[in-house]
Amino acid sequence: MNIKDLLYLHELENQLFQKINNDWLLKWNKFPEVENGNFNQLPNLDAFLRALLLDIDTILKPHIDSGIPWENIGISQSTLRRIIIKEKKEVNFQRPTRNCLAYYLGYDGWNDFKFCNKDILPTQPIIINVVQVYRSLLPQKLLPKFLPPPNDEIEDEEQELQYEEIIQKQFWETKLFKFVCFGILLIGFLFFTGKTVSSWYRNRPFTEEQLAKVKFEFVNQYDKPNTSSVKIHYDVSSLNTDSVSIDYGFEEYFIIRKNRTDNSYQYIERFSKLEDTIAHTFFKPNVWIINLIVKGKIIRTLTKVVYTGHEWVSWSSGKEDDINWIGRNVLPQITMNNGILHYDKANIEKNGWLAFFYTKHQINDDFKINGDSVFFEAKVKNNEMEGGQPCYDTSLSLIDIQKRTINVNFVQDCIEFGNVFLDKTKFYGREKVLPFLDVNLQVWNTLGVSVKNHKATLFVNGKQVFKTKYDGNVTEIKGIRITFRGSGSVDWVKLSNSSTEKVVFFDDFVRKKSNKLN
After folding, report:
1. How many CB atoms neighbour CB 336 within 10 A?
2. How far apart are CA 264 and CA 247, in angstroms?
3. Where are the domains of the chain?
4. How far, rounded to the nearest angstrom, does the alpha carbon of residue 415 sit from its chain's CA centroid?
5. CATH fourth-level superfamily of 208-305
6. Long-range contacts of residues 56-63, Cβ cutoff 8 Å, at least 24 apart
7. Which pLDDT tens digit goes with each residue over 449-493?
């Protein structure tokens, strides 16, 4: 396969995964969401493949009816499986499959797909230099085995003499070969005895000139409410390395594969190419920090906000037998009833795993308020009869554009699990007694945190219970999250400017045209 076709096939595969992602809520919502194209997570992969194959046949039928022979267009379930679960790293499938997928993506066949995507080809031609070796460093006795053999018939004595002359000219190279062998042995000796020096050389700091040439940028972003697919181009060819890693950001229960480091859950992929364009899909609303890592060092950082479309999104998550699970996104039609935001445990799909679970409610928007001049209030309860679980954790969180957070976790009876996080300043209930975080969460309480001029004040039912200075720089707020251990309830949420007292966001969960105030 030539290089151009390989690039086209990679793009065809990427666009297929993008279409599946874009159509998920419309066509595949009966299947649990998958992240980053890892369809192996699906509990019934064959059922999904049959549904996808039926969708492909439906879209292809008009083309078949128009007279295109089946032998020129078609795909089997086994071929679709190999593509979907990426059994082979090398993309390669036959022309009927290429035509089939191209028509499915809306093109007029494979040739039309290549014409419409010709901009993916390199602007500079790829040149391969072929060097013919006329001299050899091999000993004279071995040389005839590697030289091109003489003609079966030597027409005259002059040709034979010329061939012998070539052999004679290699005589001096026998000594050179011995010298090279000695040099190789010497280098090997120096390599093993100078291990410390070579290790320093391989891990030497990058120069400013090398770092200045590094590229790490978004080239495409496909944004929809609650989900976002991105294409990222990176180039670290200026650095002395043989691989590069991309850390897509961490959030407990949000990942498929995990690398546990310093109690953080991370989604990291490693690539051997020093320049490439990669794709990743985020299915949960959040502020995601994406890091480019070389030799354990963060070289570049990108920030991606996945917005919720001016509306709340809810989901559940938990852990059973040391296995993390996370539920799909749930829209307000399920969680809002009579002016209350509540994700009933009866609606949680993994109802057999509910010995330990959380429900989370989040809205990501441009709230146009700074984290150092904000007053965040919510009327909440986490009643056991309605689905709350001991210690009835109830967390109020604000997230800024750089994923810096203001977070307060109230509890009932379990004050060792209460926490206050104000960017870099953190108070842990296990390290310091925080009695003001112990609240009777079986009934409604108005909980609030006010931040102004690097001072934070906590309120419970309008009464000040704690005040402290904090170190950090929480800036433009992009997300509000309320988390319950179990299924808690929210009556209303309000965001105000702590300096001017102007309300910038209020929601009582009685649906109106807009929740945002001017």
Report:
1. 21
2. 12
3. 3-120, 143-202, 208-305, 313-507
4. 35
5. Immunoglobulins (2.60.40.10)
6. 56/80, 56/100, 56/104, 59/103, 59/104, 60/100, 60/103, 60/104, 63/103
7. 999 999 999 999 999 999 999 998 999 999 999 999 999 999 999
